[in-house]
Amino acid sequence: MLSTYQYPKFDYVRPPEQSGAEKKRYPVVVVGAGPVGLAAAIELAQSGVPVVLLDDDDTVSVGSRGVCYAKRALEVLDRIGLGQPCVDKGVSWNVGRTFFREQEVYNFNLLPQPDHKRPGMINLQQYYLEAFEVKRAQELPNLDLRFKNKVLSVIPQGDGATLQVETPDGIYTLETDWLVVADGARSGIRRLMNLEIDGKIFMDRFLIADVVMKADFPHERWFWFDPPFHPGQSVLLHRQADNVYRIDFQLGWNADPEEEKKPEKVIPRIKAMLGDEREFELEWVSVYTFQCRRMNAFTHGHALFVGDAAHQVSPFGARGANSGIQDTDNLCWKLKLVIEGKAPPELLDSYSEERVFAADENLLNSTRSTDFITPKSKTSLTFRNAVLSLARDHAFARALVNSGRLSVPSYLTESRLNTPDVDAFSGDMVPGAPMDDAPMRLLGQDAWLLDQVGHRFMVLVCVNDAAMVDTPLLASFTAVANGPLTPEVILVSATAGTAPQGLRLLEDHTGRFAERYDTTPGTSYLIRPDQHVAARWRSFDAGQVSQAIARATCNLH
């Protein structure tokens, strides 16, 4: 039990299959009600796809576990109705500091530019995120969340899968068209399907101590190499909600995990760090090792793997849950279109392609961070300490300091869903890029760009004066909006005005949108449902937009 959190107990409800109801086949079954599985089920359900979500437990995760949620994950959570509760409860931060022995040698700011709705990162115990997600899931009438439902077997079929599920009332059979697998790093589904996951285990151990204390430390990430209170090893300090501080102590591979978790071993470490006068209480303790590995492909017939079931990274850089939430963001809109017959199943292959690319980026950065934090040879240690010594006074060395390159979204620039530029642009908003946010005004009220886009294809068209849009251009907008996927056309202008009937007008009153998207009158951006740029042009052309949408949905023949 935790002193700062009361674990909920979710009710088990006898499934209809065990209550004599007529047997039915479900469009989607999600296995695993962790942060990633819940995010997938919520996104599908709120977009109109009926979902059954199975979990073998009846509460949220034990211990704080995942802590850091990055700006991009928060933007995804915004679209499923959860960003604000997470930010309200969590600890927002942008600045990280790295120390070598007793001196600060490097710091960074995750959000150096102003005018973004969300901070670079929040710290929030995983059980809070899961509890928020469960509450949201229970609000959706077409999401059937089943606790104490353990999957015993999976029989893949050409057009779906059949599951055997165990409950307190016995075993029942469940059939589905699509199976989304989100049952974590030790995925039982992956094992049942005899699928491999490749990578390496890192030969080191780390102690997590969640400590309750009142301290006026700034809301920052602090990382020490070889500090005097824990010589020869590394230490990480984060503040979470409820005055809970996460402290990670590197222990070395030869440490005895059971011995190191004992209070008589943990408390002296913390006192050496904080001083004898600092009052604190131990909240939760764990010792972990970690792996960097992934499946070769994330789609296997009608089984779709997300989160830790598909890929695992070291905790340095907060890339685990953040990457998993982005998996669901990439997958769900594609799965919805395939289910509705608006895109071929081939579109789901692009999920695997794009997220394997993202996983490889995460694995590379995670491995580099781990090698820097835990050097495995005297030569590596000498190099690392030389870099840290030089970093305090020399900018070139600061670029080499690696205490965990923190989670950033992938730029899917090589995706076959993109339409390559034919016009000249500058800036970062290239096809495949995750969208930057910008402050806007909508009907005279302050708004944020990312709150106005997503869930469907959209075309942002820049105009000087919305009221002066001519009839031929309006007809082109209508032709696009009436296409197979009914994308919405939104006007963007630097000045306030009145949009033609049926169109929204966003006012770029600060000029941030024009700056970040390199716009001139006529500039048009096609945005995917997951807020990635699919295409951009210097002038609006209905035929080009329709062709780009076809490419982005694998409907281009």
Are there runs of 5+ residues with pLDDT below 50, and where? none
Number of domain units: 4
The radius of gyration is: 25 Å
Classification by helices and strands? alpha+beta
* CATH fold-type name of the largest domain: FAD/NAD(P)-binding domain
Cα distance spanning the termini = 58 Å
Question: Level of helix content?
Answer: 25-40%
- CATH domain class of the largest domain: Alpha Beta
Principal-axes shape call: globular
Just name the CATH architecture of the largest domain. Answer: 3-Layer(bba) Sandwich
Number of helices: 15
Biggest beta-sheet profile = 8 strands, mixed
**Beta-strand segment tally:** 26
In short:
The protein has about 550 residues and is an alpha+beta fold.
